[in-house]
Amino acid sequence: MLSVAIDLSFEDWREKARGLLQAGIKPSEVLWESEGEAGLFGGGNAIIPPPVHAPPKVPKEFVSLAHTVSHHSSPDRWGLLYEVLWRMTQGGEASLLKRSTDPTVARLARMRKEIARDVHKMHAFVRFKKTGEDPESGREQFMAWFEPDHRIMPLTAKFFQKRFTGMDWAIFTPTGSASWDGRELRLGPGVEKVEVPEEELDELWRGYYRSIFNPARLKVKAMQAEMPKKYWKNLPESDLIESLVSESRFRVDGMREEAPRPANAGGKNPYLKHLRDLDRCDDTVVLQPDDHVGRPLDKLRELAACCQACPLHGSATGTVMGEGPTDADIMIVGEQPGDQEDLVGRPFVGPAGQLLDRFLAEAGIDRSQCYLTNAVKHFKFVPKGKHRLHQSPSVDEVSRCKPWLVGELLQVNPRVLILLGATAARSLIGPGFKITRQRGVVEGTWLADRVVATVHPSYLLRLQNHSDREEEERAFLQDLKAAVTP
Ligand code: URA
User: Fold this and answer.
1) Does domain 271-484 have CATH number 3.40.470.10?
2) What is the dihedral sign for C-alpha 68, 72, 78, 80?
3) Is the CB of 114 under 6 A from ligand 1?
4) Which of 118, 133, 302, 452 fits as disulfide partner to 483, beta carbons 3.0 to 4.6 Å?
5) 407 pocket-lining for ligand 1 (C-beta < 6 Å)
6) Is the pTM of this model over 0.70?
7) Parallel, antiparallel, or unpaired for β 2-6 and 30-34?
8) How far is the CA of 178 from the centre of ligand 1 (A)?
9) Percent of the residues in the chain that have a pLDDT greater than 70, as a whole number
10) Cα 483 to averaged position of ligand 1 atoms, centre (Å)
11) How far is Cα 437 from Cα 420, in angstroms, rounded to an integer?
């Protein structure tokens, strides 16, 4: 048995795993040890024998999976990763990662999902306190203490740099730290517990919380239950909730007034063949992104049925959430339900959906194995005679709906994510994303191993010119094929 110590970095594991693989050392012959982690055997770092095999060819998806999972706190992560690496490169199981039912692959997928959730919670719940000012520059300095479940400081530091670029800050966790001084982002070791100085600037956080508090949030109990106590105790805003709640009924009523209604509705929407979900809801719904983390899809669906976060709920028949297997390998995101989807309550059943079905089949993708959903969950339209004409959702509507989409994404945790049209791509990749210039495989996102952004099938339906349409259809098919071709 070879005892191999890892300094907790992905790079260290990768180098050692490569050496072991080339030396022909089987997974069962290696004992992985993480420096400084509990449960160690204290063995030395063995010398890895010289290579007998050529360097392995490793799929990109594995590298991305291994990088994420290397931040998990479970001590067996290194061994599980090495087992998969060995089986893919030496055991004749090159497409092992596609076998989501394999117990080791499934375990790694779960670990990746746990990391995604932890990262999401850290983004949402870190709270800074002012500690003083830099005597030279006069810049105010802030500090935060946070206890994530996993070693995720390196995965989250850039987010804080971008969000709080104008202030000096340091974040400490038991397993890593990060600091930013306006010029350089530095990563450091973990610390035991930082004594946070008196709460001089809790007001800062109150202001921040107030500005992001959504008036449609009334289910305070649900919110508190979802936010684990260990996060809750660090939040200065918790005593603000009561007053915000009492204000919010008034603010939600105001939003309802603004909701568009069909012109001839006379109080009753003539298009509503189905009982509106809303009529069965005696409450409105939590709406912060973090409220959705970790909720199973059926719970998300139940909550979303009552969502009143934007005016669109006022005229749509109901909320149309996604459908498909919870553990789908491929997730497809469109813009919003259309007329038929709104009435039936399922995504992609109308003309655009039928066209999509045709292309999916041509690309060799089985729709029934995909999770299909939309960036916006309510149909936006203007009534015209007997018809309801589609309208694009606004940036605000897309962002108010995003928590539902992120909730679905974190649950399904797909390997491949296909974004149809600018709304879906902008919601998940970023507001500046341009389908015309950036379509195809999109690298470097946390969303899935493979992200492909392409045009929406309704765009193809709108093309009048035969040869334009043929050309665009070819490109669309190519994008779908690229999504599933490693
Ligand atoms: N267009 C979409 O983007 N989604 C649907 O569900 C239907 C049409």
Assistant:
1) yes
2) negative
3) no
4) 452
5) no
6) no
7) parallel
8) 42
9) 76
10) 19
11) 14
- pLDDT, position 51: 76
What backbone phi and psi angles, to 5 degrees, belong to 125? -110, -5
What is the spatial distance between Cα 434 and Cα 421, in angstroms, rounded to a whole number?
9
- How many of the other CB atoms lie within 10 Å of CB of 239? 10
Domain boundaries, the chain: 2-121, 126-188, 200-258, 271-484
Q: Is 179 in contact with 170 (CB distance < 8 Å)?
A: yes
Q: Which residue has the tokens 């108010």?
A: 400
- What is the number of residues in the chain? 486
Determine whether the shortest distance from the Cβ of 335 to ligand 1 is under 6 A: yes
Residue 37: the pLDDT is: 60
Q: 157-182 pLDDT, tens per residue?
A: 988 888 788 888 888 888 988 888 88
Rounded CA-CA distance 478/486 in Å is 13
